[in-house]
Automatic annotation (TrEMBL):
It comes from the Bacteria. The lineage of its organism: Bacteria, Bacillati, Actinomycetota, Actinomycetes, Frankiales. This is Putative enzyme. Belongs to the short-chain dehydrogenases/reductases (SDR) family. InterPro entries: KR_dom, NAD(P)-bd_dom_sf, Sc_DH/Rdtase_CS, SDR, SDR_fam.
């Protein structure tokens, strides 16, 4: 498939995990890809990993800094000529019971996942409106429904859902769609570090009885960001093996 030929895709948190899987997918489909990440070493490694002869750009960016984000988006549009797709993937986890969450860890989680998504979307709206076309895909999580010991993360990811719906209304008349993906248990380094019994307990709650792959998320993002999904906006796509609808009692 070459459906992203001539398109420019910008991805935050793009140096590893889900971000790298999505970058690889978009590049394989012909897109020019701009990666942003706070980890410079991982960013350099990522650009070497993507081997589809795609035009690549990597920038060390802190999405919590609006000036850095604005400069990054401006640089991408100047360098690559346009901006068609923004993927808000950057996020962090600092889990704890509510009485043990400090002001700093509360702010850190919301600043990266929610405020960072806002900074990037605000910067991207201008060039997307001018060209009359855009796709914004932001990352929520199955946790946005509520999860024990994650009040900061849940608040951030629920906020992403609200932000997505509001931006979808603002972007619709300008040819901009705005959607979110809520991943379930995906095979990432964080999940791989979980011990056997805890991991098995979580997997047993998935109706499909297995975890997802980063490629499953990349497939979903590549669909929502495509021209084919042009009449879909303001939705949250659960990519979770059915865990958000509950498991069968049988």
């Amino acid at each position: 498939m070459n459906r992203y030929h001539g398109r420019v895709v910008a991805i935050t948190g793009g140096a590893q995990g889900l971000g790298l899987a999505m970058a690889t997918r978009f590049a394989a489909e012909g897109a020019a890809v701009a990666l942003a990440d706070v980890n410079g070493e991982a960013l350099e490694a990522a650009t070497r990993t993507i081997t589809h002869d795609a035009e690549l750009r990597g920038d060390v960016i802190d999405v919590t800094d609006s000036a850095q984000v604005s400069a990054w988006i401006a640089g991408v549009t100047d360098d690559l000529g346009r901006l068609d797709v923004l993927v808000n993937n950057a996020g962090i986890i600092r889990d704890n019971r509510v009485e043990d969450i400090t002001d700093d860890t509360w702010r850190a989680v919301l600043d990266v996942s929610l405020t960072g998504s806002f900074h990037c979307a605000r910067a991207a709206f201008g060039p997307m409106k001018r060209q009359g076309y855009g796709r914004i895909v932001s990352f929520s999580s199955m946790s946005w429904h509520g999860n024990f010991g994650q009040s900061n993360y849940v608040a951030a990811k629920a906020g992403v859902v609200g932000l997505t719906r509001a931006l979808a209304l603002e972007g619709a008349r300008h040819g901009i769609t705005v959607n979110a993906i809520a991943p379930g248990l995906i095979e990432t380094p964080m999940l791989a570090s979980m011990n056997g019994p805890a991991r098995d307990k979580l997997i047993s709650k998935i109706p499909m009885r297995h975890t997802g792959r980063p490629e499953d998320i990349a497939d979903a993002a590549a669909f929502l960001a495509s021209e084919t999904a042009g009449y879909i906006t303001g939705v949250v796509l659960d990519v979770d093996g059915g865990i958000s609808i509950g498991s069968s009692i049988r």
